[in-house]
Amino acid sequence: MSYVIQFVFAVIVFLVSTFSAWYEGSELRDTQWEWKYSAIFSKWKHGTVTNVSEISGFDHFIYAAKFKPLFPILMTISLLYILVILATWLLRNHTNKLSLFFMILGLTLFVASSLTFRSPTVGLVWFTWLFLLTGISSSMVALKLRMKFTSNNQEVY
């Protein structure tokens, strides 16, 4: 029951923060000089962005993460929390697989922190630290679960 309450709360926070980040990032449409740097998805789709109608909704999140990072950070934390709750619930009897999940999550977060490293905007610097700290935490949980799994298997023999 406690997993359900936590999951529902995390989903609500995720939805509210996603909508808020998308709304705050829509300021990109009014900031034409920033299209070159923040309209990444639109550039992939259209080549160069020359019109407001060519800007993708995903670019709103990039702009918000760079310049108004509160809601994108809440969105990221709540998404990570949803993933951890689901993995913990689904893999509760499979310690080895749960350890593998946390290790993959940690490695993914390390890669994400390297992608946002040395960004000139404050928002992406915050994301670098968020990804780095959660990656370290996830890796530590994976190692602790792995040690628990190894010690339990040695006692069986």
Can you tell me about this structure?
The chain has helices at 2-25, 35-38, 40-46, 57-67, 70-90, 95-116, 122-156. It folds into two domains: 1-68, no CATH class; 91-157. With 157 residues, the protein is an all-alpha fold. Helices cover 79% and strands 0% of the residues. Helix 1 (2-25) packs across helix 4 (57-67) and helix 4 crosses helix 7 (122-156).
Concise summary:
Pfam families: DUF4306 (PF14154). Helices cover 79% and strands 0% of the residues.
Walk me through the topology.
Layout (H helix, E strand, L loop, with lengths): L1 H24 L9 H4 L1 H7 L10 H11 L2 H21 L4 H22 L5 H35 L1
Strand content: under 5%
Helix and strand sequence:
HHHHHHH
Number of domains: 2
The quaternary organization reads as single chain
Overall pLDDT confidence: 92
What is the gyration radius calculated from CA atoms? 19 Å
Sketch the major β-sheet: none
Proportion of helical residues: over 70%
Outline type: elongated
Low-confidence stretches: none
Q: How many strands appear in the DSSP assignment?
A: 0
How widely separated are the two ends?
A: 35 Å
Structural category is mainly alpha
Task: Give the helix tally.
Answer: 7
